[in-house]
Design brief:
Elements lengths: L15 E4 L3 H12 L4 E4 L3 H11 L5 E3 L3 H6 L6 E4 L5 H11 L7 E4 L5 H13 L3 E8 L1 H7 L2 E5 L2 H14 L18 H31 L3 H11 L7 H11 L9 H4 L9 H12 L4 H13 L2 H7 L14 H34 L5 H7 L11 H15 L3 H18 L11 H5 L32 H8 L2 H14 L4 H14 L5 H12 L3 E2 L6 E4 L7 E3 L2
Parallel strand pairs: 1-2, 1-4, 2-3, 4-5, 5-6
Antiparallel strand pairs: 6-7, 8-9, 9-10
Helix pairs in contact: 1-6, 8-12, 8-13, 8-15, 9-10, 12-13, 13-22, 15-20, 15-21, 15-22, 16-17
NADPH dihydro-nicotinamide-adenine-dinucleotide phosphate binds next to helix 1, helix 4 and strand 6.
Length: 552
C-alpha cells in the first residue's frame, strides 16, 4: 500500500534494509543507524516509514522507500534484509515478496519470534534459491531493540561471517565488554534458543507474580510497599531485569482512578505462542520443563473465563496465613523465588541441550548464558554463574559445543551397542533396550516411543547440582518448603513454586515411584520392565501364576 511517496532512493546506498517499522523494526533500524550503518527502511503502511524519518531522521542515515523494488534497489550488494514483522504466514508472505527482487548471495534475516521449524523450512527453501537465511532470535523489547538487544542468530558460517559483525555492533554489551550476540548454530537454532528464552521468561514472570501474590495476601501490603520489597530484592542475588520492572509496574498509579494500576488491569494473561511452543517441544523431547509448563498453564487458567466464573462457587476451605514475623516471611519468599528461578533456567538449558543433539546443532551453552547477561528480558546477575558452570564443564571435557555434542553421540552409540545390557539406573528407556520399539531415552531420540527422559552425557546434566547453584539453592530449600506449604494451607495458588520444589525433590530422590508405574504398565499391557539387579527386560505373568519371565 503506497499512501506516501518518497523520492526514489539513490541506488545502492544502504548497508542493510529493515522491513517492518513496528515496535521492534523501527527501533532496530534506529539502532543500526546510530551505529553508523546506512539503513534502508520499508513498511507496508508507508506512513510508518515516514514517521520514523520525521521523528528520528537525524539519528543517522535512513534511506526510505515506499515500494519494495525501490527498497531493494537501495541496498548495497550482496544485500542484507532484516525482516521484523508478525511471525507466521505474514513472515512467509514478506519473504516471498522481497525474494522476487533479490539475487543469489543476498541475505535475509528474520528477527521475529518465528517458530524454529518454520525457520528450518525457510532456510532450506531459500538456500535452494541461492539466498542465505538467518533466523535470529531478538530479545529486549522496545528498549532493547533501540539501545542494545540480545541477539541469537542461527545460520551458516558464511551468513554469520557476513552479518555477524553488524549484529554484534548493535547488540547489548555485557560488563566485560562482550557483545550479547553469538552465532548459535545452523538453521532454526537461533529461534529455538529464543523460544526457550521466552519459556524461561514465562516461568520467571509467573514466579515473580506468585511471590507478589503471596506477600500481598500474607502481609496485607499495598502494591507501592511491595514495589519497595522488589527494589530491595534487586540488590541481592535475585538482581534481574524482570525484578527491576516488577517494582516499576507495582509503583504505577492509574491516572483515571487513582488506584494502583495493577489493581485495574484485567487479570487474564495473554500469550503469543513462544511459551506454549517451548512446552510442546519439551514434551516431544521428553525434557521436564515443569516450571515453564506451569507458567504457561497459569496464563491459560487466568484466561479461562467460564471456568473461573463457575469456580467462584467453590469453597476455599483454607486457613488464613498467620504471620508472626513479616521480615521472616518476606525473606522466605525471596529465597523461594531464587531457588525456583534457578530451577526454571536449569530446565531451559536442559531443553536447549536436548534439542542441540536432536537437530545436530553445535550449541555452546556457556555462550548462550553469556549473551543473555544483558539486553534480553531474562537478563539476571546469576547468568554469569550459569556461563561459568558450562564453561567449566566444557574446559574439563576439552572443548565447547563439539564436546557437549560428541558426548551425547557417544552415549547414543553405547546404547545401541549395549542393547539390553543397561540398567535403569543409567536412565535408558526400557523399550528400546528390550528391542520392542525403536526409541531410546537419550537426547536425539525423538521418536514415537521416546518416552524416557533425555539423559545422555551432558557435562552439566543438572545445572542445579553445579557447585555454585547446589550450595545457593540448598540454602533456599527450607524456605521454599515453608512457602509452598503455607500457600497450600492458605489456599493461594503457587503452581510454579510448587512445581519447582517437586522437580528439586524429584531429581534428588534416590528412588521414584516410577517402579510402581512400570509394574502397572506391565500388568495391563505387558510393556515389560527392567530390574535394578540384573540386565535385560522382564515380564511378570500377572494373570497366571505370577512367574517372571525374560522379555522375548
Ligand atoms: N514486541 C516485543 O517485545 C518483541 C517482538 N518480537 C517479534 O518481533 C516481530 C515484530 O514485533 P513487533 O515489532 O512488536 O510488532 P508490531 O505489531 O509493532 O509490528 C508488526 C509489523 O508487521 C507489519 N505487518 C503486519 N502485517 C503485515 C503484512 N501483511 N505485510 C507486511 N507487513 C506486515 C506491520 O506493518 P503495519 O503496522 O503497517 O501493518 C508492522 O510493521 C514479531 O515477530 C514479534 O514476535 C521479538 C522480540 C520482542
Ligand atoms: O519475545 C518477546 C520478549 O522476549 C515478546 O515480548 C513476546 O511477545 C513475549 O511473549 P508473550 O507475548 O507470549 O508474553
Amino acid at each position: 500500500m503506497t499512501d506516501i511517496s518518497f523520492a526514489a532512493p539513490s541506488p545502492t546506498t544502504a548497508d542493510i534494509g529493515v522491513i517492518g517499522m513496528g515496535v521492534m523494526g523501527s527501533r532496530l533500524a534506529r539502532n543500526l543507524a546510530r551505529h553508523g550503518h546506512a539503513v534502508g527502511i520499508y513498511n507496508v503502511t508507508t506512513a510508518k516509514t515516514q514517521a520514523v524519518l520525521d521523528e528520528h531522521g537525524d539519528e543517522g542515515t535512513f534511506v526510505p522507500a515506499a515500494e519494495l523494488a525501490d527498497f531493494v534497489a537501495s541496498l548495497t550488494r550482496p544485500r542484507v534484509v532484516l525482516i521484523m514483522v508478525v511471525a507466521g504466514p505474514i513472515t512467509d508472505e514478506v519473504i516471498g515478496n522481497v525474494k522476487e527482487f533479490l539475487e543469489p548471495g543476498d541475505i535475509i534475516i528474520d528477527g521475529g519470534n518465528s517458530l524454529y521449524t518454520d525457520t528450518i523450512r525457510r532456510e532450506k527453501e531459500l538456500r535452494e534459491d541461492g539466498l542465505l537465511f538467518v533466523g535470529a532470535g531478538v530479545s529486549g523489547g522496545a528498549e532493547g531493540a533501540l539501545h542494545g538487544p540480545s541477539i541469537m542468530p542461527g545460520c551458516s558460517d558464511e551468513a554469520y561471517g557476513r552479518v555477524g559483525p553488524m549484529l554484534e555492533s548493535i547488540a547489548a554489551k555485557a560488563d566485560d565488554g562482550e557483545a550479547c550476540c553469538t552465532h548459535i548454530s545452523t538453521d532454526g537454532s537461533g529461534h529455538y534458543v529464543k523460544m526457550v528464552h521466552n519459556g524461561i521468561e514465562y516461568a520467571d514472570m509467573q514466579l515473580i507474580a506468585e511471590a507478589y501474590s503471596l506477600l500481598r495476601g500474607a502481609l496485607e501490603l499495598e502494591p507501592a510497599a511491595l514495589a519497595e520489597v522488589f527494589r530491595a530484592w534487586n540488590t541481592t542475588e535475585l538482581e534481574s531485569y524482570l525484578i527491576e520492572i516488577t517494582a516499576e509496574v507495582l509503583d504505577q498509579v492509574d491516572a483515571e482512578t487513582g488506584k494502583p494500576l495493577v489493581d485495574v488491569i484485567l487479570d487474564q494473561a495473554g500469550q503469543k505462542g513462544t511459551g506454549r511452543w517451548t512446552v510442546q517441544d519439551a514434551l516431544d523431547l521428553g525434557v521436564p520443563v515443569t516450571g515453564i509448563a506451569e507458567a504457561t498453564f497459569a496464563r491459560a487458567l487466568s484466561s479461562s473465563v467460564p471456568q473461573r466464573e463457575a469456580g467462584q462457587e467453590l469453597a476455599a476451605l483454607a486457613e488464613a496465613w498467620q504471620v508472626d514475623d513479616a521480615d521472616a516471611v518476606t525473606e522466605d519468599v525471596r529465597k523461594a523465588l531464587y531457588a525456583s528461578k534457578v530451577v526454571a533456567y536449569s530446565q531451559g538449558f536442559d531443553q536447549i541441550y536436548a534439542a542441540a543433539v536432536e537437530y545436530d546443532w553445535q550449541i555452546d551453552l556457556a555462550a548462550v548464558a553469556k549473551i543473555w547477561r544483558e539486553g534480553c528480558i531474562i537478563r539476571a546477575a546469576f547468568l554469569d554463574e550459569i556461563a561459568a558452570a558450562y564453561a567449566g564443564a566444557a574446559k574439563r571435557t576439552g572443548n565447547q559445543a563439539a564436546d557437549l555434542h560428541g558426548a551425547a553421540e557417544a552415549n547414543d552409540a553405547k546404547v545401541s551397542r549395549d542393547g539390553a545390557g543397561t540398567t535403569n539406573e543409567a536412565s535408558v528407556d526400557d523399550e528400546s533396550a528390550a528391542g520392542e520399539h525403536s526409541g531410546t531415552s537419550t537426547p536425539g531420540a525423538r521418536t514415537e516411543d521416546a518416552e524416557g527422559s533425555s539423559g545422555g552425557e551432558n557435562p552439566v546434566p543438572l545445572l542445579l547440582a553445579a557447585r555454585h547453584f547446589r550450595e545457593a539453592v540448598e540454602e533456599c530449600i527450607p524456605a521454599l518448603r515453608r512457602v509452598v506449604a503455607q500457600a497450600a494451607l492458605a489456599g493461594v495458588p503457587v503452581p510454579a513454586f510448587a512445581a519447582s520444589l517437586a522437580y528439586y525433590d524429584g531429581v534428588r530422590a534416590k528412588r521414584l515411584p516410577a517402579a510402581l508405574i512400570q509394574g502397572q504398565r506391565d500388568f495391563f499391557g505387558s510393556h515389560t520392565y527392567a530390574r535394578i539387579d540384573k540386565p535385560g527386560m522382564f515380564h511378570t505373568q500377572w494373570a497366571e501364576d505370577g512367574t517372571e519371565v525374560p522379555a522375548s
